[in-house]
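Q: I'm writing a short explainer about DoxX-like family protein for a general audience and would like to include a description of its predicted shape. Could you first generate the structure from this sequence?
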Amino acid sequence: MNHKPVLEKPLRLIQITLAVLWIYQGLIPKILFHSHAEIAIWQSMGVELPLAKMAVSLSGVIEMAFGCSFLLWQRAVILHQLNIMGLAGLLGLIALTDPMQLSTAFNPVVMNIAMLVLSMLAIQLLNVSKQQA
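A: Of course. Here's the predicted structure. Afterward I'll give you a sentence or two in plain language.
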């Protein structure tokens, strides 16, 4: 039995969800509001305030572009692999630079693990879909 049509809807939902989350994370806290926590992370690495603000904005643009890539390349396993590695790396960076963030409500652990698992599910769905082809 061909399950490929059944797999397309959840896969599309995962792609759209990841795109929206990455675009939101880039636009709202980084570009529009320059999150103090994000700026503090850059400053903890020795970056001066004006440059830290620019780095936060630049990382927001990169996150938005990455989010858009989930809409453009909906069958690319490599995007999900990069997402998994990137989110794990970002979580590690937060643990090293500002471990107190890990104890707050709606902290990076919650968001990163949820997004990481979505990519793991997408890879599984893409692999099953390829086997059905």
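A: For your explainer, you could say: The chain has five helices and no strands.
Q: Perfect, that's easy to follow.
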